């Protein structure tokens, strides 16, 4: 167990205990934005590439930005996208786009771009996001205090359900959302499908949600009415004679996207709110930029345009800094498909590699004083693409397909928040990583309308 077979020299490290390996140490929750002790201690002892074993799998962890970049670029050659067993099962197993590689993966990604691609964002979603965000923020002023994470998650969920599969039934949405709440816990649990376990609750939630999506799909097939949503595109594809897209894959694609938007985006917006509140100079600079947009626009009541969104340079710097320091996806897994040499060591075929994106984002040689929230560090840098020092949205062919969607929604939220409201944090705001960032006590703010 401790000395696995290898046709070369394995990276240094310890495989821990049989079966559980070093899982307990890895999954211990921690509260800081800093590098977890697990990675810190091992990097100090073994260097930027070390071996370990987590949830029964032999893994090589890379904290080296060059190697991380290389791993993304070699997708399909030495490495293949990999998610844990529980994650894969919950997100659709063989029907999930996450299980597809090569041309099929490319085909599914292009389908998703019908929803999250620039054309749809620019032509349709920007308007809807603007109206929804305005309405949502306005409603917060009538409450003594609002839990940002919950309220934003609700807004995004409703809005995504509408655009993905035209689902607008209020009661149904409430029930559907409850299913998703159990997900974050189940995703990192052992895949033990027994009543009472987090995994079981998660699988039940999946079953209920899939049933709802399937029903809508069935209704749509029998009625020729256009709804102008993502499901319309999927139906069109499914009907084609020579198509790879089956009904099961289409349903799981809707399920995956509903999950991807809900969880990541609500965390990003909540983190941005927290960071802005904690840094008055950032709030002042954002307000200056966004108020200048209002002045240029003339009519303050008209909606945000795509050109305005693209011109929000400082806002984009704040968003990049939020996802850099927040590390919403702190690591990404890949499966090694044939023996590969990394830094003079051999990683055997069948092993996993963990790209520690968090380590790249907190590397002081890449980002000076990495633990400080400093949007100005992005001045003069490319803001809209991934790079060797910025991989919050992944890299290579698996680069996040919802990145622009997420940035647009966050920018619109910031625009309205800083131009229309005064607000302060009244409770919560502490974060715990498990290893993704969570707000166990939410983030509460009190808001009132700004008088001009
Ligand atoms: C700030 C918010 C977000 C962050 C930080 C984020 C991060 C990521 C990362 C790191 C990956 C790469 C995973 C890998 O290489 O294995 C990824 C993939 C993906 N993301 Fe996002 N994401 C965000 C928002 C979204 C949104 C809003 C959507 C949907 C509209 C979305 C849909 C997806 C999908 C479908 C993939 C799989 C892409 C593929 O396998 O080719 N993400 N995301």
UniProtKB/TrEMBL annotation:
CDD domains: CYP90-like (cd11043). Coiled coil: none annotated. SUPFAM superfamilies: Cytochrome P450 (SSF48264). GO terms for biological process: brassinosteroid biosynthetic process; brassinosteroid homeostasis; sterol metabolic process. The keyword Glycoprotein does not apply. Its cofactor is heme. Belongs to the cytochrome P450 family. This is Cytochrome P450 87A3 like. It comes from Actinidia chinensis var. chinensis.
């Amino acid at each position: 167990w401790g000395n696995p077979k290898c046709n070369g020299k394995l990276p240094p490290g310890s495989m821990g205990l049989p079966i559980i390996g070093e899982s307990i140490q890895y999954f211990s929750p921690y509260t800081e934005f800093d590098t977890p002790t697990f990675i810190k201690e091992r990097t100090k002892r073994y260097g930027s590439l070390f071996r370990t074993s987590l949830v029964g799998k032999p893994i090589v962890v890379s904290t080296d930005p060059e190697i991380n970049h290389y791993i993304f670029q070699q997708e399909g050659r030495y490495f293949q996208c990999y998610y844990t067993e529980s994650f894969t099962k919950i997100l659709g197993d063989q029907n999930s786009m996450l299980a597809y590689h090569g041309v099929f993966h490319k085909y599914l990604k292009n389908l998703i771009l019908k929803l999250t691609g620039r054309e749809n964002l620019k032509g349709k979603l920007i308007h809807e996001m603007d109206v929804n965000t305005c309405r949502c923020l306005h409603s917060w002023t009538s409450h003594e205090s609002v839990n940002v994470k919950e309220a934003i998650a609700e807004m995004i969920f409703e809005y995504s359900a509408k655009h993905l599969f035209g689902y607008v039934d209020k009661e149904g949405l409430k029930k559907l959302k409850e299913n998703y709440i159990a997900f974050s816990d189940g995703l990192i649990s052992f895949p033990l499908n027994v009543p009472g376990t987090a995994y079981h609750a998660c699988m039940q939630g999946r079953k209920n949600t899939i049933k709802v999506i399937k029903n809508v799909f069935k209704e749509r097939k029998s009625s020729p009415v256009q709804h102008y949503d993502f499901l319309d595109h999927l139906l069109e594809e499914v009907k084609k004679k020579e198509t790879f897209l089956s009904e099961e894959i289409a349903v799981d694609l809707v399920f995956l996207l509903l999950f991807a938007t809900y969880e990541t985006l609500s965390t990003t917006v909540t983190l941005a709110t927290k960071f802005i509140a904690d840094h008055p100079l950032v709030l002042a600079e954002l307000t200056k930029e966004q108020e200048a947009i209002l002045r240029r626009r003339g009519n303050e009541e008209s909606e945000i345009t795509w050109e305005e969104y693209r011109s929000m340079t400082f806002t984009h710097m704040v968003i990049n800094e939020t996802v850099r320091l927040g590390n919403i996806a702190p690591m990404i897994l890949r499966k090694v498909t044939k023996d590969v040499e990394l830094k003079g060591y051999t990683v055997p075929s069948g092993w996993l590699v963990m790209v520690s994106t968090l380590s790249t984002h907190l590397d002081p040689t890449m980002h000076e004083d990495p633990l400080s929230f400093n949007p100005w560090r992005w001045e003069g840098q490319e803001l809209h693409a991934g790079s060797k020092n910025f991989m919050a949205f992944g890299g290579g062919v698996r680069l996040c397909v919802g990145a622009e969607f997420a940035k647009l929604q966050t920018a619109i939220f910031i625009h309205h928040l800083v131009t229309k409201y005064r607000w302060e944090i009244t409770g919560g705001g502490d974060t715990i990583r498990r290893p993704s960032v969570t707000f166990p006590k939410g983030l509460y703010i009190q808001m009132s309308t700004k008088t001009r």
